[in-house]
């Protein structure tokens, strides 16, 4: 055999060995559904070489073993019970099993004595947040996936600098990818100059090198603000204008943000403390030793949920499906990105089939073409089960809300899609209270009033080509 032939034979044998090793890795990797394993096996076999590259780029939910060990150690050190506050009796709560599942996510117990109000708009949420920062006495903690240098972003930056200059301890963290423009701007440097402590979640310098050790698209998607440890904000809104300049053609972005006071703010502070120590290296346990008293007249019982790929269990879809199962009369779901797991899809259909009035509200135009197509692949089954689908045309509906029977609801940063289920670090709030849940129902009713209903006949008339493309996009979900 000539030297060239030998080299070719060796290269071929090496390639086959790499294919086999990758297939075994797919079969042995934990936290993979059979559908995801099959999809990746087909990808690796059908796209020789390219499939292996794609698998190691996107196929494993891994943000780095060192980071994972650090996070688990931090979670083990931090307290889980609100000092001086007894847990609420879960068995008396509506959707008690959903509350139990949410509590298992972080070890927090549902706590009573909270007050929660909804911001009227994105502008109102920023005004309220700035006012609370201006009134802060001890600490300001902010964590946003996206923070822009627009009117809203600058207003909050200015408020944080003012607070730091008068002696308030201010800590600001953003996702390194989602807020990369801010972190490269003079405004970010000005925070440090004013005495603000800053941190980057999942920062990296060399993307091509980083992807050999961890996925670059695992991000901290949370939106959390905690003022003096007793006032907190949670919801879907980034620190940005509704006009959202990076994707202005989809504007306005329609969000929902809740301002909460009481013991559940301590739990959101604890989630911030986890992220802060993981990425900024500062231990905030001493701050969590301070008690947060129930608010007089606070009628909301709530539990915070911090979810992410560090957990082997599906916290977001589990909690959502238990909420769906608890619905007796009404179930309303608002989400911008609907690419569900089979369990979530079936749970929504099951609620409608047993007679629950189910409304699903989605944006008419999605900023992700793939997600928009994939979402519509589920419409035929949903409509056949009796789910009413509404497409909101007045901008990108970015709110994430699930509410049942006017009694319990979940809001936060998590979407009903695979990315929120398996990849992103998300923050959510599960709450029970007639007035607060009623406000969320009223907000969703307003979305529905402005939306266009999706007719079963319209979906049935879609061409075979359109349906094939939609189903193809949905089939790709397990790969990503």
UniProtKB/TrEMBL annotation:
SUPFAM superfamilies in alphabetical order: Phospholipase D/nuclease (SSF56024)
A single BP term in Gene Ontology: cardiolipin biosynthetic process
Membrane topology term: Multi-pass membrane protein
Gene Ontology cellular-component terms listed: extracellular region; plasma membrane
Chain segments annotated as coiled-coil in the UniProt record: none
Entry's transmembrane regions: 6-26, 38-58
Compartments in which it is found: Cell membrane; Secreted
PLD phosphodiesterase domain mapped to chain residues: 216-243, 393-420
Keywords: Cell membrane, Lipid biosynthesis, Lipid metabolism, Membrane, Phospholipid biosynthesis, Phospholipid metabolism, Repeat, Secreted, Transferase, Transmembrane, Transmembrane helix
Keyword Lipid biosynthesis annotated: yes
This enzyme's EC code(s): 2.7.8.-
First-listed, main subcellular location of the protein, grouped into a coarse class: membrane
One of the record's GO molecular function terms: cardiolipin synthase activity
InterPro entries noted in UniProt: Cardiolipin_synthase (IPR022924), CLS_N (IPR027379), PLD-like_dom (IPR025202), PLipase_D/transphosphatidylase (IPR001736)
Main function: Could be a virulence factor.
Database matches in PANTHER family: CARDIOLIPIN SYNTHASE, PHOSPHOLIPASE D
Protein's recorded name: Cardiolipin synthase
Phylogenetic classification of the source organism: Bacteria, Pseudomonadati, Pseudomonadota, Alphaproteobacteria, Rhodobacterales
């Amino acid at each position: 055999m000539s030297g060239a032939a030998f080299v070719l034979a060796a290269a071929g044998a090496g390639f086959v060995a790499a294919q086999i090793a990758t297939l075994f890795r797919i079969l042995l990797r934990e936290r993979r559904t059979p559908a995801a394993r099959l999809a990746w096996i087909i990808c690796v076999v059908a796209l020789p070489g390219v499939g292996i590259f794609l698998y190691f780029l996107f196929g494993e939910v891994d943000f780095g073993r060192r980071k994972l060990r650090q996070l688990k150690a931090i979670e083990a050190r931090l307290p889980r019970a609100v000092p001086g506050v007894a847990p609420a009796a879960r068995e008396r709560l509506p959707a008690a099993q959903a509350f139990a599942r949410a509590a298992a996510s972080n070890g927090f117990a549902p706590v009573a004595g909270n007050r929660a109000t909804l911001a009227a708009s994105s502008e109102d949420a920023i005004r309220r947040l700035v006012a609370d920062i201006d009134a802060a006495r001890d600490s300001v903690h902010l964590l946003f996936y996206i923070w822009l240098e627009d009117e809203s972003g600058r207003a909050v930056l200015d408020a944080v600098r003012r607070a730091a200059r008068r002696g308030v301890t201010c800590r600001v963290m953003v996702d390194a990818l989602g807020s990369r423009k801010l972190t490269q701007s003079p405004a970010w440097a000005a925070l440090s100059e004013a005495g603000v402590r800053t941190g980057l979640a999942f920062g990296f310098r060399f993307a091509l090198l980083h992807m050999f050790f961890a996925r670059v698209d695992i991000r901290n998607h949370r939106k959390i603000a905690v003022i003096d440890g007793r006032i907190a904000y949670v919801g879907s809104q980034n620190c940005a204008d509704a006009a959202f300049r990076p994707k202005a053609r989809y504007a306005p972005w329609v969000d929902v943000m809740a301002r909460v006071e009481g013991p559940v703010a301590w739990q959101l502070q604890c989630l911030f403390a986890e992220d802060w120590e993981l990425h900024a290296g500062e231990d905030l346990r001493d701050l969590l030793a301070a008690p947060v008293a129930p608010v007089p007249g606070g009628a909301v019982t709530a539990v915070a949920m911090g979810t992410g790929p560090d957990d082997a269990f599906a916290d977001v879809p589990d909690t959502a499906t238990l909420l769906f199962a608890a619905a007796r009369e009404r179930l309303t779901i608002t989400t911008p990105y609907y690419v569900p797991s089979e369990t979530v899809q079936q749970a929504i259909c099951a609620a409608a089939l047993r007679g629950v009035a189910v409304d699903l509200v989605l944006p008419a135009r999605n900023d992700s073409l793939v997600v928009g197509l994939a979402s519509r692949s589920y419409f035929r089954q949903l409509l056949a089960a009796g789910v009413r689908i509404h497409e909101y045309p007045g901008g990108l509906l970015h709110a994430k809300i699930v509410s049942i029977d006017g009694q319990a609801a979940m809001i936060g940063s998590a979407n009903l899609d695979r990315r929120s289920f398996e990849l992103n670090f998300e923050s959510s709030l599960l709450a029970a209270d007639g007035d607060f849940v009623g406000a969320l129902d009223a907000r969703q009713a307003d979305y529905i009033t402005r939306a266009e209903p999706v007719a079963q006949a319209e979906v049935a008339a879609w061409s075979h080509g359109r349906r094939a493309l939609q189903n193809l996009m949905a089939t790709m979900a397990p790969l990503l």
